[in-house]
Amino acid sequence: MIKLEERKASIKPIKSKLKISILDDQEISQINQNTRTVLEEIGVVFPSDKALKIFAEVGANVDFEKQTVKIAADLLDKYLATSPRNYTMAGARPDLDVHVGDGKGTYFYCSGESPRVVDFSTGERRLSVKEDIANHARIADYLPIISLMWPSASASDKGETSPLHGLEACFTNSEKHVESESVMDEVSARYAVEMAIAVSGSEEKLRERPVLSQLLCCIQPLAQDRGGIEAAMIFAEYGIPVGFMSMPTLGLTAPPYPAGALTIAMAETLSGIMLTQIINPGVGNYISVNPGIVDPRTGAYFMGSAVAQMTNVSGVQMAHSNGIPILACHSFGGSQYELGNWQAGYENLYSHLLGVMAGADMSFGPSGMYEAVSLLDHPRILFDREMLRVIDEITDGVDVNPKTLAFDMIKEMGHKGGYISHRETGKFYRTTWPKESILYDDGKPEGRKWRDPKDVAREAITWILENHKPEPMSESVKQELRQIVDRADKDDSIKREISGHK
Amino acid sequence: MSEEMYKKLAQAVIDGEADDAEALARQALDQGLDPLACITNGLTKGIQQVGELFASGEYYLPELIISADTMKVAMDILEPALAGGQEREVVGRVVIGTVEGDLHEIGKTLVGTMLSANGFQVTDIGVDKTAAEFIEAVKENNATIVGASALLTTTMLQQKKIIEALDEAGLKNQVKVMVGGAPVTQSYADQIGADGYAEDAISAVDIAYRLADAPA
């Protein structure tokens, strides 16, 4: 069982002693060169006059009619140079700050934006509502393996302003850094910034320690979303980190080859990063590459194939070679993930193991999702966490030193005798045996027998929901957030913005 | 003074400090303390607490075994000093071993240790032991329970031979037989006439309590 006790939120990255490189220097260089040639000769579509003008002003080759931006390599590199390799994504307290690129390992997200949930009380599948986001935020706040969070579901009870309600639910139910990936229009972005300023205390404090970040999905191949990119420009203006995610589907929205798909992904993300750096040099960025494939028999979309995972992890080297941090790996629940489905289990395990070993700055982590990230089930977050617990152990590698070589112990025990009775063995198991696991239940002897981890996980989630109270936010800030979201609810321009770019 | 010594003996067992336990046992005899009281109020109290710590998940097997070994070190000093007719109180007297042709030790040792930690007097006769050797140990130790372990489908048949041998030796009414090991099942245990079957060391304690007619 995991330790269930009243405690404050904390965060814990996973640092890997084991390292892998998928691409060699020459291969990285070839993909980078190819990316720059694509940007220079083919360009990326930015369907926003505001963005096009900004590109034109700095000397990019802009076709206003086709809304296409072509970027020379030296111009791109000039602006990438200001994108920081290290920066902070702040929590409510400094000890919850994620210092991206600090070398302390991979920080994990609780991501999501699932449209449906499994109701925790009744077990029925239904559309997600704001309360589900609040509950999941409290669970994520409790688990140290989670350092950053998205609203984990859509607030389907809140209409067009669902993303802002999601942010409110996260800010008021967790002290950890909050990121939005669904604020996709300029008007909503301004409200989100207002909320972040309210949480931080002032615009200046927000710039210093941004408590909010944004992830923007690019449109494949080689295009950006109008609302999304205009929201990104607002966030960048206020010093709010902006990540760009490319989701090339091999053979559908990108070439079928990983190298070609990586080229597409880098062109999309780097062009977006350049725009935010023109607006606010030094604002934090990151890249995320999430490739998929299609089932060639049915056209069904798959996140969890081996080739897609390999492409994904190669993105770590590609991002780092451009001096940009990366958010790697698919979300847990990205494949046809059902509990007890061994295929989904191994896909999730090796994807995250490779991501950590490749040195990803951040990774999608325990989320509680399944069915291709479309269904949130609170207890499942503990199964995702369980895999990271194993990955944490594996990536510690093997310690070789006089103590672990254990010559004295071997000599003492001789040719017979059980090492189980050795004092050193006792110490070893005390530190090594996974106490914090839903797979191995403690308690009375009869309770130590195998129990279905689903039951154990459910018990743990029940306890967390009943007992974990994140450090309370001040009433005045809560009220301020409420008023901002309330104003947004009455603001018809959000509806117009959203429908305008659909 | 004696209360203080009992506490120290108990603590040595809880901490698994064999050297301390040995020194304390000698000290107790030098001071003229009653060895039976030292066992009952010191060592046994300590091992009972170890059993509770293990049951609650606080202690793991290594600590349990280290504590049981520690107790044995002190017992080896105190027991010979018991006055004639004095006998320490035990839940039951167990003879445990792995059957003939089978060299697997771990399961049998764990069960023996668990039983020791739960107040049974355990005589571990080792591995690859014939039915005759089991019978001899039962007689020698006036055992009330026999534990026969087998890990192989080929050697599990020896468990039946031990039961038959006990019957032939007229000991069947004196002792209860527990069997265990990977291939053994409850139905096999029933079929060969065993009195108890346990699938692991923890449930073996419950079964042994039941067989000893003591409260679990």
TrEMBL record, chain A:
Gene3D superfamilies reported in the protein's UniProt record: Trimethylamine methyltransferase-like
A Pfam match: MTTB
GO molecular function terms attached to this record: methyltransferase activity
InterPro entries from the UniProt entry: MttB-like_sf, MTTB_MeTrfase
UniProt KW keywords: Methyltransferase, Transferase
GO biological process: methanogenesis; methylation
Family: Belongs to the trimethylamine methyltransferase family.
Full protein name: Trimethylamine methyltransferase family protein
From TrEMBL, chain B:
Residue span, B12-binding domain: 91-216
Assigned keywords, A-Z: Cobalt, Metal-binding
Domain B12-binding N-terminal span(s) in chain numbering: 1-90
CDD domains, A to Z: corrinoid_protein_B12-BD (cd02070)
Superkingdom: Bacteria
InterPro entries: Cbl-bd_cap, Cobalamin-bd, Cobalamin-bd_sf, Corrinoid_p, Met_Synthase/Corrinoid, Meth_synthase_dom
Single biological process term from Gene Ontology: methanogenesis
GO cellular component: a single term: cytosol
One function term, GO molecular function aspect: cobalamin binding
SUPFAM superfamilies membership: Cobalamin (vitamin B12)-binding domain, Methionine synthase domain
Position of the signal peptide: none
UniProt similarity note: Belongs to the methylamine corrinoid protein family.
Designated name of the protein: Corrinoid protein
Organism: Candidatus Desulfolinea nitratireducens
